[in-house]
Design brief:
The complex is a heterodimer of chains A (505) and B (370). Chain A has 505 residues and is α/β, with parallel strands linked by helices. Chain A is 37% helix and 16% strand. Classes of the chains: A alpha/beta (505), B alpha/beta (370).
Chain lengths: 505, 370
């Protein structure tokens, strides 16, 4: 007889229903899996056999055929162990057929029949709710994550195959679901109070956080660029529940979740090394996996030594920076990942790092610093709103003991500024306002127009640069609690304008 | 000494093919014409070659057709101005080792002016500080406004600023290249190079496709100073190539002026050394006029309109920067002002042209126009 369960395949972040059918046929004892399984799925036969036996069930001495439908979708990973095992039990009468009808399952079997979590449980649970499945059996370790999906589907948290069977037949009552733990314990993120000096850079970080403006920091090695960037997530507004679930879904697929505290509570901070490939940054692989730009969705993507990244890698950032999504095309399918990080770049002023050093330690020949900086290619440079020089601290600043402001105080101002933007009816932060919207939000008076006009004349401000000055000026005004964008706000925005290299030196 | 254009073009191509300089060989042979026509033994002696190398050099020279070489130069939009030609600058012909021909573009723009007007070389380091660049541009503009022809080497940094300043003021300017006129070096100055060819002039002694090589640039500097009445070194470190130009100027009897710098500034060490050795101090175009007695100077044009009256924080910041270049954080600390307010004040000063953003992290007060 044939028994049937469902499971959900995760392709990128999208999901598809997979029917798991098992038929027992007369013949020599054997176990075959069909339906485009990959090597990991083929291996699951051994785990399923051992798991069934070691949980005191019997493997039927028949020819077992497991089919994963639809047959044209490539199946990967160990998540089909549990549905196949349950289907075998149901097909051989060890489990009533009624108990598995309309039930979904996903999980990896240990040889002793225990259940191990698999990546992507949250996406599968959401799929189960959307598809109207009655119950979804998941490894107990991933139950908290599965329950984040909400919806009508009952999450059955099983520790092993026997436990799953007992829960499905009603022989044991499910444990009461625990409330998801609140904020994970452990140290909070790094705090701005640790940063000495660098007042100009701190101010730029605050503006970046308040308006979601991308930022480029230029400075010699050891100036503290990375230290500053790491403190940016701590001053961004706290995550809303939807944002937290969106990040959790991505991190679940990538297998990055903390099993104890699946709900991501902090904005991610990703700092890929400059040797990263295009696939590593924007996502890829035969079964497309999210790249760094997706893993930092709604968080901070920090590109240190940005001039050392391969130009092709930086060019690949064009689509995510523009549209907030990445489309990864593969032979079988095209997958779309969300990708809306706040981009922070840091670079040395020249290959040796000391260009413009007051003590003249730069050893680069003339022209090399310019050539080096020009490697910050068009698409990325075009989307950087703020540029700030991060100088190395002088001895006095290094040894001084002036208490610096803590992240919490900065975060409050950032939240107020974002509230001001929302108060104007803005659905997006200032950095993502279109040309029309920004002209409406940052209407200039006569003095402001004169000022920007002078910037166009004197500094060669381009049309794109003009819009950018308006956006940043709007954010500066929001931070100051000002209704209108005034001259002092525009001046600060002009001072922070993007690299001259992009505006044709 | 008269040199025929075919000979001059032919020799330039031979120098290119052999990858060496023929100036000394021409002197040894008794002139470019003699070198061009010399027999095998004479050529070998002039080139100080023997055996296979001499035979090779002779084969290379004999393979070059003077008339065809001249056509090639003209087809590239260039002209050959051999020694003895009316258009060959008389001042250049006087110096030791003048080039036997200039291969030039736009020479008609400047030939007469080089003879009738004051000619000033404005040179300096490629890696120059922002205020020195600004000063070079302003100085060249003022000199051009007073009727001078500005000569420089079309390198990055000070040279490029000098040419750009003269062009901005609507004046004449000549670039002397250390490579072929069609080599397109340095690439960063391509736009300036095109403008120079149209509105000023670009010249050099090398065959058009000669690639840049380190030894050719010092040789080029003797032409820069040789064309000029005086040489101004705007900013030069202790070992800058601009000092070679100053040395040639001294040998050639041209006055040298140097823009003084702080004693602790490495970037100005060469200039200060020149002043110690007797160079005149240059802080404005007036200093150059005083050094070069010439009937061609015209009265200075109307001065630049005065800047705005500064008050409040921008004035304090500007006063502070006039003392020394500072980082934004240092300014904020010195004035106990808010980082945001200092950023706004600096942007205001930059807009008004009173402050410059340095390559590194520091801000500089802009020099006032001389």
């Amino acid at each position: 007889m044939v028994s049937r369960l469902v499971s959900a395949a995760v392709i990128g972040l999208q999901t598809a229903t997979v029917q798991v059918e098992v038929d027992l046929r007369p013949g020599l004892p054997a176990f075959a899996v069909v339906g485009l399984p990959d090597a990991a799925v083929q291996e699951s036969r051994e785990r399923v056999r051992s798991g069934i036996v070691n949980q005191a069930f019997a493997v039927p001495a028949r020819r077992i055929v497991a089919n994963l439908a639809p047959a044209d979708l490539r199946k990967s990973g160990p998540q089909y162990d549990l549905p196949m095992a349950l289907a075998i039990l149901a097909a051989s009468g060890q489990l009533p057929a009624e108990a598995v009808r309309g039930v979904g399952a996903a999980g990896e079997l240990a040889l002793d029949g225990g259940l191990r979590p698999v990546p992507g449980i949250l996406a599968m649970a959401e799929h189960a709710s959307r598809s109207g499945w009655r119950r979804l059996v998941v490894p107990a370790a991933a139950a908290t994550e599965a329950r984040l999906a909400g919806g009508d589907c009952e999450i059955v948290a099983a520790t092993g195959l026997r436990h799953a069977a007992d829960l499905l037949t009603g022989r044991v009552a499910p444990d009461a679901p625990q409330d998801p733990p609140a904020a994970p314990p452990g140290p909070a993120g790094p705090d701005l109070a640790d940063v000495r000096g660098q007042h100009a850079a701190r101010r730029a970080l605050e503006i970046a956080a308040a308006g979601d403006h991308s930022l480029l920091m230029i400075g010699p090695p050891g100036a503290g660029k990375t230290m500053l960037a790491r403190r940016l997530p701590g001053i961004l507004p706290p995550l809303s529940r939807e944002e937290a679930v969106a990040i959790t879904r991505i991190h679940s697929v990538a297998g990055l979740l903390d099993p104890g505290h699946p709900l991501v509570a902090r904005r991610p901070f990703r700092a890929p090394h400059h040797s990263i490939s295009v696939s590593g940054l924007v996502g890829g692989g035969r079964f497309p996996r999210p790249g760094e730009v997706t893993l930092s969705h709604l968080g901070v993507l920090f590109l240190d030594e940005v001039c050392a990244f391969a130009p092709s890698v930086l060019d690949a950032l064009r689509q995510p920076l523009e549209h907030g999504v990445v489309d990864v095309a593969r032979a079988m399918t095209t997958v779309r990942f969300p990708a809306r990080p706040l981009l922070i770049c840091a670079g040395n002023p020249c290959p040796c790092g000391f260009d413009g050093d007051p003590e003249g330690r730069c050893v680069c020949p003339p022209g090399r610093a310019e050539a080096y900086r020009s490697r910050l290619s068009g698409p990325v440079a075009d989307r950087i709103d703020l540029r700030i020089d991060v100088p190395r601290l002088s001895r006095d600043e290094l040894l001084g003991d002036g208490a610096a402001e803590a992240s919490a105080a900065v975060a409050r101002r950032v939240a107020t500024a974002r509230d001001a933007a929302r108060g104007r009816g803005q659905a997006v932060p200032n950095a993502r306002l279109g040309p029309e919207a920004v002209r409406a939000a940052a209407a200039l008076d006569a003095a402001g127009m004169r000022l920007v006009g002078r910037a166009v004349d004197r500094l060669g401000l381009t049309a794109r640069g003009f819009d950018r000055v308006l956006r940043v000026g709007r954010t500066v005004a929001d931070l100051a609690g000002a209704e209108r964008v005034g001259e002092e706000h525009l001046l600060e925005a002009i001072g922070l304008r993007a690299p001259a290299a992009t505006e044709g030196a | 000494m008269r040199v025929r254009p075919e000979e001059a073009a032919g020799l330039a191509e031979v120098a290119f093919v052999l990858g060496r300089d023929l100036q000394r060989a021409a002197r040894t042979a008794g002139g470019p014409g003699a070198l061009w026509r010399a027999g095998g033994a004479g050529l070998a002696e002039a080139l100080r070659l023997s055996g296979a190398a001499a035979a090779e050099a002779r084969a290379a020279r004999d393979a070059v057709d003077g008339a065809r070489a001249l056509r090639t130069v003209r087809d590239a939009g260039l002209e050959v101005i051999p020694m003895g030609d009316d258009r060959y600058p008389a001042r250049l012909a006087e110096v030791f080792d003048p080039p036997f021909a200039l291969i030039a573009q736009g020479w008609a723009n400047v030939a007469a002016a080089l003879a009738e007007r004051p000619v000033v070389a404005v040179v300096g380091a490629r890696r120059a500080t922002p205020p020195a660049r600004r000063f070079a541009r302003g100085l060249a503009a003022d000199l051009a406004g007073r009727g001078a022809v500005v000569v420089s080497g079309l390198a990055l940094g000070i040279d490029a600023e000098a040419h750009a300043g003269a062009l901005e003021a609507g004046g004449l300017t000549v670039a002397v290249l250390g490579c072929g006129a069609a080599a397109g070096y340095p690439r960063a100055n391509a736009a300036l190079r095109r403008r120079m060819g149209a509105e000023g002039a670009v010249c050099g002694e090398y065959w058009p496709s000669t690639p840049p090589a380190p030894w050719r640039f010092p040789a080029r500097n003797r032409i820069v100073s040789g064309l000029s009445h005086a040489v101004v070194v705007v900013e030069a470190a202790g070992r800058s190539g601009a000092l070679i130009t100053a040395d040639f100027a001294l040998e050639q009897g041209r006055p040298v002026l140097a823009v003084p710098g702080w004693p602790w500034s490495e970037a100005a060490a060469g200039c200060n050394e020149l002043i110690r050795a007797g160079a005149a101090v240059c802080t404005s175009a007036g200093d150059v006029v005083a050094e070069v007695p010439h009937g061609g100077w015209s009265a200075p044009g109307p001065g630049a309109p005065g800047g705005p009256v500064l008050e409040g924080l921008p004035r304090d910041v500007h006063d502070l920067l006039r003392g020394a270049p500072l980082r934004a954080d240092e300014i904020a600390a010195a004035l106990t002002a808010d980082a945001a307010a200092v950023a706004a004040a600096l942007a205001f000063l930059e807009l008004e042209g009173l402050a410059l953003r340095g390559d590194g992290q520091r801000w500089w007060a802009a020099p006032t126009r001389g």
